[in-house]
C-alpha cells in the first residue's frame, strides 16, 4: 500500500512527543495553552516557575525560522494556573505543511490543555483600527482553507475529533465577552475591538486589490497564521480565545507612500509588550476561575481523548 506519511503525523507520533515532554515536566498538567505571535514572545516571560524547552530538543518538532519568533516551549504558571506557551509558531510560508504547523496544538491537547489563547500580529483594515490596538477575534475567514489547504487534510485521526468538524462555535463567545470586559477593566477599552481575522498564505503582504477584497468579505485584521491552529484546536475540542495586535494599518490608497514591513510589525509589538502581558495574564486567570467553577463543557466537535 502507498505510504501516507506525507499526509501527517500519526496519533502514535504525537503521543511520542507528549511522552517526551512529560518526562521533562513530570506531573505538570497545563490548563491553558498560549501561542505567541510575531514579536509577542514576551507574553511567555510573565510565567512563574518557568521551564523552557527549545524546539530543537523536542522529537519531531519543526524549527522556528521567522524573526520575532523564538523557538521554545515554556511551561509555568500564572496566578497558580498551569500554562504552556509556544514562544514561536510555525507558518505555511516557511515551507511547512499545515499538519506540521498544528502539531504543537495537538501535543498541547494531549498534555491536558483545555483553553487555547492564539495571538498574532496583523494588519488592520477598518480605518477605526490604529497601530497598537488589539482586536479580539470573533471569527475568521480562512482564505487558505477555502482553497483546500487545511491542517485536517489527510487521514482523520478519530482520537482527536470527527472527519467533518463544525467551526461556527470555535471562537468561544463567552471568552470573547470576557475578553472585552477584561480589556475594559484594564482601561484598554479605547484600543480594543472585536472583529474577523483573515488568514492568507504570505509571505508577501497584500496588494491593495486583495485588501479591498478581504474588506468586502468582512475581514478586519489580516495575517498569515492562526486559522490553522484554531481549526486543529476546534477539531480536538479546545475552547479558543484569540486576539490580533494591529501592527500596521492596511494600505488601501494607491497614492500612499507607505509600505508594510516586518520591522514595523516587531516594533509595534514591542511597544505594547506590558499591556498585552497584563491582558493575557488576566485572561489566563479568568480561564483558571472557569475551571475551578466546574469542568468546561467541551464543544461537540471533538475532544474524545
Ligand atoms: O501571525 P504572526 O505569526 O503573529 O505573524 C504575522 O507577522 C508576519 C509578517 O510580518 C507574518 O508571519 C504574519 O502572520
Ligand atoms: N498578511 C499580513 N500579515 C501581517 N502581519 C502583520 N501585518 C500584516 C499584514 O498587513 N498582512
UniProtKB/TrEMBL annotation:
Q: Which ranges carry the Nucleoside phosphorylase domain?
A: 32-285
The residues the record assigns to binding a purine D-ribonucleoside are: 206, 248
At the top level, the lineage of the source is Eukaryota
Record keywords, A-Z: Glycosyltransferase, Purine salvage, Transferase
Q: CDD domains per the record?
A: PNP-EcPNPII_like (cd09009)
Entry GO MF terms: purine-nucleoside phosphorylase activity
Q: Does the keyword Glycosyltransferase apply?
A: yes
- Kindly tell me the pathway this chain contributes to: Purine metabolism; purine nucleoside salvage
Pfam families to which the protein is assigned, alphabetical: PNP_UDP_1
| Catalytic reaction(s) noted | guanosine + phosphate = alpha-D-ribose 1-phosphate + guanine; 2'-deoxyguanosine + phosphate = 2-deoxy-alpha-D-ribose 1-phosphate + guanine; inosine + phosphate = alpha-D-ribose 1-phosphate + hypoxanthine; 2'-deoxyinosine + phosphate = 2-deoxy-alpha-D-ribose 1-phosphate + hypoxanthine
A cellular component term (GO) from this record? cytoplasm
- Where phosphate is bound, by residue? 38, 69, 89-91, 121, 225
Q: Which GO terms describe its biological process?
A: purine ribonucleoside salvage
Keyword set includes Transferase: yes
Q: What is its EC number?
A: 2.4.2.1
Q: Which class of enzymes does this protein belong to?
A: transferase
Q: Which InterPro entries match?
A: Nucleoside_phosphorylase_d, Nucleoside_phosphorylase_sf, Pur_Nuc_Pase_Ino/Guo-sp, Purine_phosphorylase, Purine_phosphorylase-2_CS
> What PANTHER family does the database record attribute to this sequence?
METHYLTHIOADENOSINE/PURINE NUCLEOSIDE PHOSPHORYLASE, PURINE NUCLEOSIDE PHOSPHORYLASE-RELATED
The family line of this record is: Belongs to the PNP/MTAP phosphorylase family.
Q: What does this gene product do?
A: The purine nucleoside phosphorylases catalyze the phosphorolytic breakdown of the N-glycosidic bond in the beta-(deoxy)ribonucleoside molecules, with the formation of the corresponding free purine bases and pentose-1-phosphate.
Q: How does it assemble?
A: Homotrimer.
Name of the molecule in the record: Purine nucleoside phosphorylase
Native species of this protein? Acanthoscelides obtectus (Bean weevil)
Amino acid at each position: 500500500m502507498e505510504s501516507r506519511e506525507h499526509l501527517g503525523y500519526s496519533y502514535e507520533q504525537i503521543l511520542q512527543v507528549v511522552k517526551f515532554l512529560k518526562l521533562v515536566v513530570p506531573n505538570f498538567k497545563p490548563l491553558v495553552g498560549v501561542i505567541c505571535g510575531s514579536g509577542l514572545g514576551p507574553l511567555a516571560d510573565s510565567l512563574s516557575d518557568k521551564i523552557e524547552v527549545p524546539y530543537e530538543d523536542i522529537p519531531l518538532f519543526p524549527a522556528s525560522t521567522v524573526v520575532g519568533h523564538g523557538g521554545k516551549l515554556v511551561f509555568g504558571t500564572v496566578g497558580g494556573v498551569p500554562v504552556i506557551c509556544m514562544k514561536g509558531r510555525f507558518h505555511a510560508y516557511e515551507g511547512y505543511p499545515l499538519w506540521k504547523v498544528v502539531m504543537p496544538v495537538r501535543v498541547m491537547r494531549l498534555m491536558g490543555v483545555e483553553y487555547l489563547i492564539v495571538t498574532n500580529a496583523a494588519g488592520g483594515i477598518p480605518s477605526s483600527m490604529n497601530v497598537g490596538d488589539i482586536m479580539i477575534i470573533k471569527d475568521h475567514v480562512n482564505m487558505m482553507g477555502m482553497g483546500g489547504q487545511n491542517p485536517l487534510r489527510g487521514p482523520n485521526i478519530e482520537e482527536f475529533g470527527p472527519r467533518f468538524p463544525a467551526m461556527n462555535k470555535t471562537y468561544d463567545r463567552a471568552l470573547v465577552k470576557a475578553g472585552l470586559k477584561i480589556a475594559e477593566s484594564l482601561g484598554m477599552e479605547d484600543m480594543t475591538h472585536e472583529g474577523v481575522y483573515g488568514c492568507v498564505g504570505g509571505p508577501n503582504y497584500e496588494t491593495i486589490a486583495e485588501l479591498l477584497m478581504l474588506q468586502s468579505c468582512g475581514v478586519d485584521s489580516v495575517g498569515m497564521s492562526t486559522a490553522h491552529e484554531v481549526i486543529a484546536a476546534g477539531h480536538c475540542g479546545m475552547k479558543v480565545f484569540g486576539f490580533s495586535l494591529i501592527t500596521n494599518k492596511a494600505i488601501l490608497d494607491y497614492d500612499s507612500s507607505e509600505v508594510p514591513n516586518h520591522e514595523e510589525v516587531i516594533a509595534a509589538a514591542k511597544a505594547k509588550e506590558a499591556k498585552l502581558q497584563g491582558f493575557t495574564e488576566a485572561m489566563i486567570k479568568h480561564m483558571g476561575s472557569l475551571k475551578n467553577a466546574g469542568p468546561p463543557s467541551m464543544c461537540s466537535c471533538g475532544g474524545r481523548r
